[in-house]
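Sequence only, no structure available. Ideas?
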Amino acid sequence: MSASSIPWFYKLFLLYIEPVSALAGAYYAALRPSDYLRDLTLPQTSYATASDALPNPALSPEIAASLFQLANLYLLFALNEHLVLSSTNSLTTWRRLLFCLLVADFGHLATLVPLVSGASVGSGLGWDVYYRVWDWNAMMWGSIGFVYLGASTRIAFLLGVGLQQPAVKGKKRA
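Reply:
I predicted one. Tokens follow.
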């Protein structure tokens, strides 16, 4: 199957929408780090927000370096997804890259566990952070909801949903 036979939804989402979203994540992590950290919380909860818990709005060198590294990884994600997938007609390459990005999706969701368990800043968001969509702010929609969409899209692609299946070649019967 060539890339031209890949359904438009996959191409639109995986080549354009998701890479642009990753660039937005890179922008906030690198250039608006206080906003990035502040928004890692649910509104209207009894939990402490990152900005309440930080004694000083200035970021420590360690946190700043970590956020720059995160921004770099968002940039890598965006470039890797767009440039690799848009440069090949190989369904095998698409599947391999999307599998790797699916692993990254689960890793990204797992990074919220310190917030859930309270092992980090604040008293934790609770496990309900993964499903309390009515309380999500823009950051939570990006960090959870959009990751759900990306992972679901990758799972659907890997399962062959919407993809034309090549004809099975076998021996001719006499």
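Residues 156 and 162 are 8 Å apart (CA to CA).
Hope that gets you unstuck.
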